[in-house]
Amino acid sequence: MTVPPPLALYIHIPWCERKCPYCDFNSHEQFDITVEEPYVTALLNDLDQQLAWVDNRHVNSIFFGGGTPSLFSARAIDRILQGISKRLSLSDSCEITLESNPGSAEANKYQAYRQSGVNRLSIGVQSFNDKQLSRLGRVHSGQEARGAIAMAQRAGFKRLN
What we know:
- This protein is an alpha/beta fold.
- It has a single domain, classed as TIM Barrel, CATH 3.20.20.70.
- About 35% of the residues lie in helices and about 25% in strands.
């Protein structure tokens, strides 16, 4: 009997504080918190529709990409992760990654993401040089990038990029 291959889930959160000029991803400025709950509901409904194709496969990775997923509340991320774990089997070593913008980093959010099961942060640090960041159209400074990394480490994240 063959063991079915594991699953990897990509969850797209398409909103950003500001669209970076170099970004070709499907993302939109002006995140409005009122879209958060209906969007989470739609994601979980979409997952329900896809379950027939899963064939009892285990999930070995979940990636929240964007956009800027860290604009979503920890409650919304937790609701998504709880919804996934109720519907699918997560492997013991499942890597759960969330992209974060250093300019919107918050210590309490990082701690809550960690408590929800996120075990890896992808912090969007393109540079620590303020002039380069300005040319790239980034909304954070080099100091904010360093601060976001320190916050993530204090929140217990061992895996960062």
